[in-house]
What does this fold into?
Amino acid sequence: MNNSGRPLSPHLTIYRWSITMVLSILHRATGIVLSVGLVVLTAWLMSAAAGPAAYGQFAATMNSAAGLLLMIGWSYAFFFHLANGIRHLVWDTGRGLEMHQAISSAWFVVIVSLAVTAVFWILLP
It folds into this structure.
């Protein structure tokens, strides 16, 4: 069967990427990342309940470079997901739905989530 001349079904290589499209994908991805973070939170609580030796081993793992990178990533995912969720709540009221408003609020979410993550890790003792 010759498919030449027939339109392609829309997919990611057809669409021109926009900031709102990227944020939609990132919102879903950060939701998955936060779910994985809950597993780590559970491991932390279980290590605390298991005693000082288990907790010390968990703390040493999370204080390593890889552990700190994961913690920073999870905190960014949390702040991004929170800010973008608030953006969606505003949209649910019928505000901010025009294209220029959606693009402005998208960049605002990116900047705020990066800034809050940086401030969080700077102020963390």
Helices lie at 19-50, 52-62, 65-92, 99-123. The first helix runs from residue 19 to 50.
